[in-house]
Every structure is written in structure tokens, then in C-alpha cells.
Design goal:
The chain starts with a helix and ends with a helix. The protein is elongated and about 75 Å long. The protein is mainly α and about 120 residues long. It folds into 2 domains: about 80 residues; about 45 residues. It contains 5 helices and 2 strands; from the N terminus they run H-E-E-H-H-H-H.
């Protein structure tokens, strides 16, 4: 795994949310009335689904590929045995909406210098 791939994590999450939003907008809901079983009282059953089209299929394929990329990065980060390295990578690239600065990560881990944290990641990757 490279730093460039880790940096893509947040972009993947944003794209994935947009694709899921588009698919949700395309989803249709229809109400069907039924009374097929005894005592034959009418009730409404909502039926949801996506229209069969190439656009929907391509969006679903793209959603799947983004999900796989996201899962691959998460699995890689979770598989790191060194807790400190895993914490640094999570804070810098995975967690939160806004990227933490190297200085903030260093302070959180008890270091005075941001260079220490950067060097550890650079050496690890």
C-alpha cells in the first residue's frame, strides 16, 4: 500500500456516497394493494426497485468497485500489527472529515516534533 492509495480513501468514501445517492434517487416505489389470503382484507404493500437500464447497471458496478477499494484499504490498515503506525495512518488518512496535521498527530501521540511521525510512516511504507 502506498501513501497515494491511502490518500484516496476519503475521495473513495465521497464518491461512494454520491453513487449511492444517485441509485437511491433512481429507485422507484410503487404501492400494490393485495387481498389474496383469508380473511381477504385489502392492504397496501410497498414495492421498491431500480429500473432495468445500462445506467443503473454501470452505477451498481462502479459502487461495487469503490466498495472493494475502500474495503481493501480498511483491511490493510486493520492488518498493521504496530499499534502506533496503525494509529498514525488512521488519524492521518482514514478517520474524520478533515485531515489531521502531522503536528496534531505528533502531539496526540506524545511527540514534540512532527518529523518523527512522518519519518515513521515513510519508513513503514
Amino acid at each position: 500500500m502506498t501513501i497515494a492509495e491511502l490518500k484516496q480513501y476519503r475521495n473513495i468514501c465521497v464518491e461512494l456516497a454520491e453513487v449511492r445517492s444517485e441509485l437511491k434517487e433512481l429507485q422507484t416505489v410503487d404501492a400494490v394493494q393485495t387481498a389474496s389470503k383469508f380473511p381477504y382484507s385489502k392492504h397496501t404493500v410497498p414495492v421498491t426497485g431500480l429500473p432495468p437500464s445500462n445506467d443503473v447497471k454501470s452505477l451498481q458496478d462502479y459502487e461495487l468497485s469503490l466498495s472493494i477499494q475502500k474495503q481493501k484499504i480498511e483491511n490493510y490498515v486493520n492488518s498493521i500489527e504496530d499499534k502506533e503506525i496503525r494509529t498514525i495512518i488512521s488519524l492521518r488518512y482514514i478517520r474524520g472529515k478533515k485531515r489531521m496535521s502531522w503536528q496534531a498527530i505528533a502531539m496526540k501521540l506524545g511527540y514534540r516534533d512532527e518529523g518523527t511521525v512522518r519519518k515513521k510512516i515513510k519508513k513503514f511504507l
